[in-house]
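Obj.: predict assembly geometry.
Materials: sequence records (below).
Method: joint structure prediction, all chains together.
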Amino acid sequence: MPLKNDTFLRALLRQPTEYTPVWMMRQAGRYLPEYNRTRARAGDFMDLCTNPDLATEATLQPLARFPLDAAILFSDILTIPDAMGLGLYFSTGEGPKFERPLRKECDIRALTVPDPNIELRYVMDAVSQIRKSLNNSVPLIGFSGSPFTLACYMVEGGSSPDFSLVKTMLYQRPDLLHHILDINARAVTAYLNAQIEAGVQAVMIFDSWGGALSEAAYGEFSLAYMQQIINGLIRMHDGATIPSIVYTKGGGLWLENIAAMGCDAIGLDWTIDIGKARCRVGDKVTLQGNLDPVVLFSDTDTIRAEVGKVLHSYGKGNGHVFNLGHGISQFTDPDKAAAMVAAVHELSRPYHG
Amino acid sequence: MPLKNDTFLRALLRQPTEYTPVWMMRQAGRYLPEYNRTRARAGDFMDLCTNPDLATEATLQPLARFPLDAAILFSDILTIPDAMGLGLYFSTGEGPKFERPLRKECDIRALTVPDPNIELRYVMDAVSQIRKSLNNSVPLIGFSGSPFTLACYMVEGGSSPDFSLVKTMLYQRPDLLHHILDINARAVTAYLNAQIEAGVQAVMIFDSWGGALSEAAYGEFSLAYMQQIINGLIRMHDGATIPSIVYTKGGGLWLENIAAMGCDAIGLDWTIDIGKARCRVGDKVTLQGNLDPVVLFSDTDTIRAEVGKVLHSYGKGNGHVFNLGHGISQFTDPDKAAAMVAAVHELSRPYHG
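Observations (raw structure tokens):
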């Protein structure tokens, strides 16, 4: 059964499309009142992630409002370290935390790769159920945090202004950090492949904190392990190519290196001009992005104008997936998201065909 | 009376030096026990800034410990908006805040440029006193926040995870933000020129938050106003050229544009490879940076090795001032800072002369 709308998948593979497809990072989230109602019914955030019925409900909510060209699995980037036993929890206003952060060498040596079909069964069940509910309308994106980004949270125990613990390990005990990253890379590979087997039609790696590294450290401690994952991903499933997207926030300096990894697309934050990014990577990869999420606090004329600038900067031709440069803010008016999606669909047509 | 050590000034002007000069952003600060004692005597942070005796004491403390090649005025980047009447204060663990943030158009229209020799007299008094105490040992750096960075704090009322208020103004009411930025640029120009007249021998503009902008917005709302300042700075004072340094944290994508402004040096954060930065800007400007401050949590052998990598990446020749890529962490052991300074002085000699 073919997809009714495969624009997103064609754009990721640099094939011709009639318009520029669009989705939004964190499109199922707190800016939607219906999401907040689902979340309240679930209990806490992880209760929502681990309940396939509710995860399906959350995944589909933005698609009921906006003509988005892709759905993304409702889940968290930190499910893997939780499955490793670190105890993920969310404290209000402080983001994700771990009850048992990785600080001691013996704990690091004891880490093992979880079996995604056992310890992360709830994710695979959600994927299957979401695919059924989507009924081949649009493709479903699966995802994970990058090995380095997972390690940041695993070692720090939460977010951090300067990541001093994980970066001290990087400089002082690189062997230990490499050990964590190798385990993480194998875990992410198995996890994303299990998501593919369960039905996701594209995968994205979120490297939220790779941009906190020096260029040399980024290459050795973040990029190398994302490369290991890309090399290990299932390329074809159910007769279709499964494209991969790598997003390093703050990674604009390293686009050539990211493109050389063999991923199909690079997610861009809003700080880089997408036209210049295109010049730098040539026709090697698709670019996904990169409207500043703060634009959605403006009036619809301004939103339309700023969408137009991103489309114009990318220019004519294939290989662009429109997105925000970062997750949509919880304080966004959903009507402004609607205005952005409509503007992308309308204004992008002259750049195609 | 010539300076005993003018290595820093020569390096900023791309003249030959015997070794690579070094200083540290936030070198007078909480990692030094003697600073914490001075601070405790002063009362709060602004009491320390506004007391020329104590500001002089704090400025000189790191020079008594380490053979640094420059002193930097002990002050805050936000003295200008404080002088404009916004009420700067520091709440523990939350960084700088303003009692009366700029939100209403009438308040914005009422902003005026402070007279630095009146409202910021305490800074000029500190500069004169520090120069006397330095007794021509090393040059003194003056500084200010950039117009955009000042505006971030002025509009948000403090730091912010996404600067949504000031960036919403940028997209929705660019005329209002331009009005603030023009006032700020005129205020910073007058302030830095007053510092030069009072005795600082180089000036630095700290653009802490320009890196939160898109490329187009950075050019229009941050760079253009730093350009206005550079154009208005006193170039020669007391028979010497006064070099200028521009530091945009997260500005690695825009080095060519920063170099074209006419500043003498660009401050680099640690995310960019300094050798690649040098290739991009050619011999137009000196580069200042860019060791990851977290390296100072390592042992001295590691610190020495990482210092060596930065020096090696920059390579032979003039035009490098060594620094951290960001302010030194308050949790740094002062002996580690000493190890860095010693390593720079020793390991850089083969790259010169």
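Conclusions so far: Chain B has 15 helices and eleven strands.
To do: check interface contacts against the pulldown list.
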